[in-house]
Amino acid sequence: MKHKIIFFDMDGTLYQTENDIILDSTLEAIQMLKDQGYIVCAATGRPLNQMKLILEKVTFDYYVLINGGYILDSQLNEIDSFPIAKESVNDLVALCKEKEFGLLFHFGDASYIYNNFYPMYYFCKYCNVLDSLFYDQSQTFHKRHDAYDAVVLTKDKSAIDDFMKNHPDLRSDLINVKTDGFCFDIFNNSTDKSHGIEMILKRENLTWKDTICFGDSTNDIGMLQKADVSVAMGSASEYVKSFATFVTTSTYDHGIYNGVKKILIDEN
């Protein structure tokens, strides 16, 4: 086979977030890849504690979590990690307290709500990620543990833009959600899924020429650009699709199976 390792985004790619479904055809496609000897990996914005429902159905060889901020092997041992700087975390806590924005931090294996408990709770419920979700009324957990990602719930995009201008070490992705507001993922500017993938490629003595990636969203663009073969889901925007080698069908229409089948035919 020409390629050796493959990375899958989760939400909107391998996993149907709204209804908590991984199609049987998707599971069959993953098994086909494993039977052919591919290293099969997850590359997601989710932290480990939000992977429980997925891991009940799929076991991966590596995990690129929290948009490349937290990288684990098949036994869930940490390979590398890139937490947000403490000073930036403190500033974000202060901003959300002053503006009364909803705030949640991902700490690798647990997520803590700081502000606006119920709006953040309902957002997490919508995403089927209530496991290992806690409430830190004292807002001090970040002083003892590394934060890898923040989720801010607000409609005040201008305040987020101003904060980002003053914190060039950070970047944000807008998440449109079915809640009363918008969510912004905030994480290290130098960290994305492709950066986490490179840690695994180095460990396996592989390069991007050995790599295949599947994704559907803007946080997948880095890995789609660099992979030798990149596959965008049918539900992706035209902008995201422009970075892919080819486009498969949507996750609801057997997109993973159809994409994997094409790859295996092209590889042989």
Automatic annotation (TrEMBL):
Protein origin, superkingdom: Bacteria
Name under which the protein is recorded: HAD family hydrolase
Swiss-Prot/TrEMBL keywords: Hydrolase
Pfam family, one: Hydrolase_3
Cross-referenced NCBIfam families: Cof-subfamily (TIGR00099)
GO molecular function ontology, one term from the record: phosphatase activity
Gene Ontology cellular component annotations, sorted alphabetically: cytosol
Gene3D superfamilies: 3.30.1240.10, HAD superfamily/HAD-like
Alphabetized InterPro entries for the sequence: Cof, HAD-like_sf, HAD_sf
Keyword Hydrolase included in the entry's annotation: yes
